[in-house]
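Researcher: Checking consistency across runs. Here is Oxidase FUB9 again:
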Amino acid sequence: MSHKPRVLTIDDLESYANAHLPKFARDYFNGGALDSITLRANRAAYARHWIRPRVLRDVANLNLSARAFPDGHSLPFPLCVAPAAMQKMAHPEGEAATARACGAYGTVMGLSSFSMTGLEEVKREADGTRAKAGLEGGSECVLQMYLFENRSVSEGLIWRAEAAGYKAIVLTVDTPYFGRRLTEIRNEFRVPPHLRMANFDASLGVKTGSELRTEELAKTNPSNSSAKLESGQPPNKNDPSMTWNVISYLRTVTKLPIWLKGILSVEDAELAVEYGVDAIIVSNHGGRQLDCAPPTLEVLPGIAKVINGRIPVHFDGGVRRGSDIFKALCLGADMVWIGRPALWAIAYDGENGLKLALSILEDEFRSCMGLAGCSNVKQLGPEYLMPAHPDILSKL
């Protein structure tokens, strides 16, 4: 029986995953676009903010809880697990392991359209472990998706997610084209032959487009034709002609809340509100799309200011510490998401690895809250931060 090293931090999980994952998988998960400037900048941004603690405050009882949905469950702390593709390259159970960990921990799981486990199975796994953990109600899962040129493929995914009990559709809007990721090009990356994209796998009886709808729905949407998919293969390319009118189109397809993932400017944040989006995720795709795009922590305050509480502002990008969560919340985020840390965690020990990662981040966040003199996440604001002097940073 192999002995796994002791893990105390997210960095420990990263080190383990980098040492044990095959090179093609490690490079796929960790790589950024071109020179990876944005990838590195996401992490570096946190060091530019010192925490400004207050003392002699009653922090005996800390309330870290938050909600991803106004009428949703109370989460242990304001952290969710972001969608990430092809998780069976990290662990044989892939997205099922992630779902079980999220269900047991009581947090939200984002599922990638390019999952290697079907979206219905993911929801069942999350629901099952939530029930075993004694938590009331079903799990809160959201489906991340792209709008494909073949609309019926996207519609089929949405309808399946709605039928399975997903809580929102997360439309990724920063991918009219995929970023140029040099590690994948050099490795001539291909999906391993023994794995497949489960949400597009016709051999598993997956239905798409109007096949999934009842005859009544088919009559109201006669243009929705079934998509012909090769077994286990992803669909045709993303639609680069997509504009803000996509929101009104999606409203004709689903009643689920629509979140936009990939907002980096105050102008687009304002447009998201104008077009009736239910939430936004401030994200640069983990540095995998447009290199030299700004780090998410730098644009967060301006976006939060223009949103001004009208819709929830979610955030991802480079989170590795509980103090990173604290800083993002102080700068205007309502909810924070982790991506690569979850992949490293399941690479370490599947479901248990991710529960460990979540507990590490919760413990660090709890400690940060108490030491900063904060007893409730609702208290957090920019007054708890101050800029770090560049001269000091250069010597660290």
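Researcher: Does this match what you'd expect to see?
Model: One thing to look at in this run: The chain has 14 helices and ten strands.
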